[in-house]
Specification:
The protein is an alpha/beta fold and about 200 residues long. It has helices spanning about 15-20, 55-60, 70-80, 110-130, 140-145, 150-155, 175-180, 180-195, and strands at about 45-50, 85-90, 100, 105, 135, 160, 165-170. It has one domain (about 5-195): 3-Layer(aba) Sandwich (Uracil-DNA Glycosylase, subunit E), CATH 3.40.470. The protein has 8 helices and 7 strands, in the order H-E-H-H-E-E-E-H-E-H-H-E-E-H-H. It starts with 13 loop residues before the first helix and ends with a helix. About 40% of the residues are buried. The structure holds uracil and iron/sulfur cluster (SF4). Iron/sulfur cluster binds near residues 4, 21, 94 and 95. It comes from Lentzea flava. InterPro entries: UDG_Type-4/5 (IPR051536), Ura-DNA_glyco_family4 (IPR005273), Uracil-DNA_glycosylase-like (IPR005122), Uracil-DNA_glycosylase-like_sf (IPR036895).
Length: about 200
């Protein structure tokens, strides 16, 4: 299969979607990951945040943003005065993609075809969550919603309109963790979140 579409119970509620997502075989990524990590948070919610894909911790625990990137995101949301428990958090791709190096599982960026295959889940999450604002964390999420030619570096901190949805864009928290100048990267991330919050 090359799409989640045949596994998605269209029009159903969040609980039915989440439970169906556990059996998704819409692309190859279910094979090596431990489990599907579906989005979580209040339904409906004013704010939806979309990351790239679950990381190693998320794959083990089955919950979004519980690893190092999630801790950084929590801190930045608090600094921007955005309540994490009022946001629905999810990812463009629902399975962890990695390569093994010894005992470590190293994150690999999903292919465009995998993002496209997984999109029916995200589309249904948007339908049930009905967010006033969607914030894309990083280029993979931004391209999933705004098209493959979208350039994050030219638009970070901005809110765009697409198909009647308000879509804000900023970097992925993992890019802040990897940055050489951590303080500068973190402050720019918080500044983006503060600017995006105004669109709520
Ligand atoms: N990075 C993401 O994009 N999503 C997660 O859930 C965790 C790390
Ligand atoms: Fe299905 Fe998405 Fe997992 Fe691929 S990554 S198997 S499309 S849930």
């Amino acid at each position: 299969a090359t799409s989640a579409a045949q596994f998605v119970p269209e029009g159903k509620d969040w609980a039915a979607l989440r439970s169906a997502s556990c059996a998704c075989r819409g692309c190859e990524l279910y094979k090596d990951a431990k489990q599907t990590v579906f989005g979580e948070g209040p339904v409906p919610a004013p704010l939806m945040m979309v990351g790239e894909q679950p990381g190693d911790r998320e794959d083990v625990e089955g919950h979004v943003f519980v690893g190092p990137a999630g801790r950084l995101l929590d801190k930045a949301l608090a600094a921007a005065k955005i309540a994490r428990d009022e946001a629905y958090l999810t990812n463009a791709v629902k399975h962890f993609k990695f390569t093994e190096r010894g005992k470590r599982r190293i994150h690999q960026q999903p292919r465009r075809s995998e993002v496209v295959a997984c999109f029916p889940w995200l589309r249904e999450e948007i339908r049930v969550v009905q967010p006033r604002l969607i914030v894309c964390l990083g280029a993979v999420a931004a391209k999933a919603l705004l098209g493959s030619s979208f350039k994050l570096t030219e638009h970070r901190g901005e809110v765009l309109e697409q198909d009647g949805l308000k879509i804000g864009v900023t970097v992925h928290p993992s890019s802040v963790l990897r940055a050489e100048n951590w303080t500068e990267a973190y402050e720019a991330f918080v500044a983006d979140l503060k600017a995006l919050r105004k669109a709520l």
